[in-house]
Amino acid sequence: MDLALVIFDCDGVLVDSERIAVTVDQRALAAEGWDLSIEEIVRRFLGRSDAHIREEVTRHLGRPLGPAWEAAFTVEYRETLARELTAVDGAVDAIDA
Fold first, then answer.
1. Per-residue pLDDT at 55
2. Are 45 and 53 in contact (CB under 8 A)?
3. Do 51 and 88 contact (CB within 8 A), yes or no?
4. In whole angstroms, what is the distance from residue 20 CA to residue 42 CA?
5. Mean pLDDT of residues grouped by 10 in the chain (97 residues)?
6. In the prediction, which pLDDT does 5 show?
7. Largest Cα–Cα distance in the chain?
């Protein structure tokens, strides 16, 4: 297979999904009874593993979030990305160049 171009994207270079993920996190955690600001979610969870986040949520809520919660969260996250994800300003022009 001949490749003309390979792009390795670090989040925020071509697209920025972090801002979307944080708002989905905020809604999902609020639905479970843990109201956090965007800034608090970024401070507590940004750059952390899924395991770390689950541990923190379990510790705060006093109970784990089950598989049904994770499945619903995944669906909401993917649907929100499909609706809201856009290219970072200048990314398309950079690729075209």
1. 93
2. yes
3. no
4. 12
5. 77 84 94 95 92 93 91 93 90 83
6. 78
7. 53
The pLDDT of residue 47 is: 86
One-letter amino acid identity for 15? V
d(CA 23, CA 20): 5
Q: How many angstroms separate the CA atoms of 15 and 21, rounded? A: 12
**Within 10 A of 56 (CB to CB), how many other CB atoms are there?**
14
Judge contact between 38 and 26, C-beta under 8 A.
yes
Phi-psi region of 47 (alpha: psi -120 to 50; beta: other; left: phi over 0): left
Burial degree of 47 (CB within 10 A; 0-12, 13-18, 19+): exposed
pLDDT at position 57: 94
Rounded CA-CA distance 45/52 in Å is 8
